[in-house]
Amino acid sequence: MCLGIPGKVIELYKTNGMQMARIDFGGVIKEACMEYLPDVKVGDYTIIHVGFGLSILDEKEALETMDLLKQIDALGSEEGTAV
Amino acid sequence: MKYVEEYRDADLTGKLLSDLRRAVTQPWTLMEVCGGQTHSIIKSGLDEMLPQEITLIHGPGCPVCVTPLELVDKAIALAMRPEVIFTSYGDMLRVPGSERDLFAVRAAGGDVRIVYSPLDALKIAKDNPKKIVVFFAIGFETTAPANAMAVVQAKAQNIQNFAVLVSHVTVPAAIRALMESPDVRVDGFLAAGHVCTVMGYWEYEPLAAQYRIPIVVTGFEPVDLLHGILMCVQELEAGRQEVRNAYARSVTREGNRPAQAVIQRVFEICDRAWRGIGVIPQSGYRLRPEFALYDAEQRFPDVQAIETRESPLCISGLVLQGIKKPVECKAFGKECTPERPLGATMVSSEGACAAYYRYGRLAAKGKS
């Protein structure tokens, strides 16, 4: 239940006054409510839980984390060779 | 898929594992709170790849598992009423009640429907004005914004034939209860990434300070999990007890403020019973009095005092607190299987027993 899935926002529209979106999960399209993401834009990736977008994935943070993880390894490998 | 494949990368996983081996010098016991993380760990085999010094124990973060038997029995009693359409997330239907499960109610003619989202339940209510649609609103802070919004929308759209049976619990209260328990020994926590997506992680800072324990916000893919474990081990090895974030692409310290505001508007904090664990003070949500019309327990007051009966063989309470592993249960894989579960931990896609059974951890090993 807590396994939210990242999907891409492909369309935004209102239903009963609620901000809704069509979300592309790697080819499978589903509807989700975007009321909790007032700044969401078409093209954003969001984590969807039980039909609600709860965060816009932060591309900058994601890239920084990946760089960091790869760097840690580079240092680690050097240490590893030295030992 | 973007934001998924790169976090399952085998090379990066291998590199993080070697870094972890270099970082660890002594035994540490870490608990992943969330059952979704438990499944990811067992499915990917991370538990068998970690350095010997690191033991992962599995926490109570499975909403289906901790929903108390009394509420499951209430759900079953409601679902059996002819005027009710009972709606629920799919996992709850196979959870054993004292006498039967919700699937058995459906087989006997009850109108029990699986929904993906509480908004689907609301739509069923709109489409069936002569019935009362009850939604089983279970979960941690991740499902609370969705469940709260369904109630807000029911009120806004004046849909009066909709009610929720609330069983909401919160992670910080569970961490406090585990730290206060004399039987539980945990050196560090991996906090549930999607709970923190909603709530942020500011709530964990006083817990880390009070119990002198590091808490690392962690995601769900193998690379995310190893990143969280590595950060937690680095804290422990350095003698630090901070809250750190290994899931920054989704989680900020403050969390999702609009979602928190709607949770606060609809729910208030209350004591909650956790199946297998008991009552934890201030550990859950109930509807605020102004939403009483949408409270299934108030709407059907005769579905109250229910006498419950647990299986005497099931040790799911100990499994949920990380005191026992699923394979230490005598009934595991024998009297208790996913086809005929004795306890909720064998049912749910987030239950530790189901993860062990499904991915072939069928016997106790020297190391887990």
Write up this protein.
The complex is a heterodimer of chains A (83) and B (368). Chain A is 29% helix and 42% strand. Chain A is built from 1 helix and 5 strands, in the order E-E-E-E-E-H. Chain A has a 5-stranded antiparallel beta sheet with strand order 3-2-1-4-5, with no helix packed on it. Chain A starts with a strand and ends with a helix. Chain B folds into 2 domains: 1-312, Rossmann fold; 316-361, no CATH class. Helices cover 38% and strands 19% of the residues of chain B. Chain B has helices at residues 10-23, 35-44, 46-49, 63-66, 69-79, 102-107, 118-127, 144-156, 171-180, 193-199, 205-211, 222-237, 257-266, 296-299, 316-320, 352-358; strands at residues 28-34, 54-61, 84-88, 111-114, 132-139, 162-169, 188-192, 215-218, 243-245, 267-274, 278-287. The longest helix of chain B is centred in the middle third of the chain and has 16 residues, at 222-237. The radius of gyration of chain B is 21 Å and the shape is globular.
Can you summarize this structure?
The complex is a heterodimer of chains A (83) and B (368). Chain A is of the alpha+beta class. Chain A has one helix and five strands.
